[in-house]
Amino acid sequence: MLFNESISISRVPCKLPNVCVVDVNGEEVVRLIGIYAPDSKTWSWDDLSHLLSKKCIVYGDFNVDIMKDGKKADILLKWAGDYFLAQALPNSPMSLRSDRVIDYAFVRGINLDIQVYNGNTTSDHLPILSVIPFKVLQQKQIRTKCSILKKEVCFLKQIAKKELNLFFSSKLDILLRHRNSSSSSSNSFWYRSKRFLKPSSSSIHAFIDSSGQIVKESDLMCNIAADYYEEFFKASNIVRPHPYTDSPEIEYDNNDEVISEVKLDELINTVLAKKKKKSLDAHGISNYMFNFLDLNYWSLLLKLYNYSFQKSVVPSAWKDTRMILLAKKDSICPPSLTRPISLLGSFQKIGEKLFLTRFRDLLFRRGLLPDSQSGFRERFRLQTRLLLFLEDIYSLMSNSAPVCTIFVDFRTAFDQLWILVCLGKLRNLGIPSSFLNWIEAWLINRRCFIEINGSKSRWFSIEKGGPQGSVLTPTLFITYNCDMDSSLSGCISHFFADDLAGIMAGQLGINYSSQ
């Protein structure tokens, strides 16, 4: 193994032939294990087990094709599974003499990308390339206090600053000219400018109660907010019989479809992909905890999530929510002008992400979501929806048609979701019972408390709506409203989650535009 001299490493003693072990020292130690495993090797895979660490990568020529070598591959995969090692396979074969894939890696605790280097080589195997993310320890800089060097650096800094300003101003001018086009430069413009389009919300300093008095004490503010939101989240009164809750069930060919089983690799990748934020849920647990979760618990979590999907059971503690409030406009306002943000259970968020992957696949296979809906969907972008919206308006106006556009924002859309009606409508859309039962278990029997400046309110029940901040709630909402486009036949509709833009024009202009 070769390392840059600026990287701090330490070699781990190993007596196994053709095995090299090195620890790369950073904020966390990453262990690299390089092996060459010919058929004539004198050691077994279990002999490597004591060399594995919390974060490690096993690179090398395993001389085993996982897809083709049958029993040899099963032995290797069993060893990897016993020690929670995930496969990292390249995108094409490396051998120049055959199509076997025998050079790859196993990883634990690290998200690794790996690919084949297609350049020139003197070996009969193409090299593999990968990027290992880790943070190095900060090194103290040596100050020389050289006045000449300081002046030279300041001079070069001014030149670089001037050149950068000229470069960015010229680039911005080009991007602005193409921002409404459908070219790749338009995508680049939106990508660079989206950082400046983030919404902002102010914290709450005081509440205005029903009598008009300003309340600043945190305990009283919590009680006022709890009274308001307990009433707000009470179940909706549905006039029965209702077409979605009381109509005869429709038999679909996929009614017996089950939720697919979660694999260990998928669970680990889902957890690693989550942002390790330190905000606490209702029970004082954060996503940051997953950085220190012992490896012995992964198999338990895997069984829990699979049992939850199979039996449609969600632990009640996972559904407990800590709610914080943000002011929509003024920092002193009544509770009705606040925006509730739910800090969900850390384990429940992993379950929601795993379920969302399967739910989206089901929606795609059944073709339930219309193309006019671009919110919270893979391969659908707000920028594209905006360009299509402008194109429709320009097309109608070019035909001298009177054009009227109505913008609709559904008030508290996610919080007003009728649970029973939503489940009934999903059933009529052909969502299998296994998915419906899990969604019902996820939505019902929820409770939360409100926290303001460290003070906590009483627990109260949530009987309607989906959790704010959940990755699953937006997809459930757009599925619930997937037929709205067909109900608005008098206009051209554009949806982005709970926002609607409807374009209405004279019939003559519509006829010419369609032609």
Automatic annotation (TrEMBL):
<dbReference type="InterPro" id="IPR000477">
    <property type="entry name" value="RT_dom"/>
</dbReference>
<dbReference type="InterPro" id="IPR036691">
    <property type="entry name" value="Endo/exonu/phosph_ase_sf"/>
</dbReference>
<protein>
    <recommendedName>
        <fullName>Reverse transcriptase domain-containing protein</fullName>
    </recommendedName>
</protein>
<dbReference type="InterPro" id="IPR052560">
    <property type="entry name" value="RdDP_mobile_element"/>
</dbReference>
<feature type="domain" description="Reverse transcriptase">
    <location>
        <begin position="307"/>
        <end position="515"/>
    </location>
</feature>
<dbReference type="InterPro" id="IPR043502">
    <property type="entry name" value="DNA/RNA_pol_sf"/>
</dbReference>
<dbReference type="Pfam" id="PF00078">
    <property type="entry name" value="RVT_1"/>
</dbReference>
